[in-house]
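Reply to dn_fold:

You asked what the input looked like. This is it:
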Amino acid sequence: MISRAAPPSIDTQTFDLRGAHYDLGLAQGARTARFAAPAWWPPPPGLAFARACAAIIRELHAPLLDELRGYADAQRLEYDDLLRGVCRWSMKTRAPSAPAVYPEGGCSSFARVEADGHVRAGHNYDFYPIQRVRQRVRLTPDRGRPSLGMRGSAPGGRYDGVNDLGLFVSLHVVLSDEPDEARPGVPFHFWPRLVLETCASTRQAVDLLTRAPHLNPFNYLLADPTGDLAVVEAHPRRVRVRRPDGAGLAATNHYAHPEMLDFQRGRKLTHSLGRLQALEAGAALSDHAASVCGHAGGHTTLWSMQADLTARTVAYAPGAPCQTAYQPAPWPGT
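and this is what came back:
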């Protein structure tokens, strides 16, 4: 079975790999601490449920499962155990002697068509500092588009990134109700990876994100160099698309589409609403007035990224952007 012990130190490795997906997984697994489902995750689902989720992923981009097999082999894990571990069916966190609750939430992102005509996007990833895996991964796979992005706890996934054509994606957990009974779907962390490797534009990404079932309630911000911006608001029972009213769009940790509001009744959304409004008004990722940049609890900014999709440049700050400098990263596919 999967161990639940946390890795002993923060892992901020960078990877720059090319080749077949199995080999990409093998290389990452060999250099990363043995996968352990984080202690705050719920128990893994049964094998039949995990295999049903994998079948959906296989229809969308089968090589991603080859990567998981390579990762499992490198770490001497049973593939089925790894598969169960990465299919997180609930976003509630848990602690000893305490009921499962949602984290505070804190991730913030924006995409804008600026006055100079450039399309720029950025993302602050916020969570408790206990999350140890914060790897930057640049891949050139044999099957799929080259991409660059950040990986969190689960193998194979991405929390943000860009591909070689300038398509940007970021994810945000939504503080919403969950179905009483989970149904198989694509786990949240695989969606950005699928977008980056299989899509060339925001339009294609929206089509992908709206035609397959979602396992978890999340927002996905999308942007491409043409200035096509969208937020896909996804829930296991419904998916809607939000478009900008002006030159910019932002996403935080709540649904804003009118047809999604019934999933978050009774939720305290003041913090998330404030960050959304600040970003849509042009606030920087280092902003403290609306707490876009966070320093406490589940609202600790673990990394920040900025990208100019027109100029094809991207940079990451390995921490809160008010304290750590952005470091340029090589564009994928170059």
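The helical segments are 21-31, 47-61, 63-74, 79-86, 190-198, 202-209, 270-280.
Hope that clears it up.
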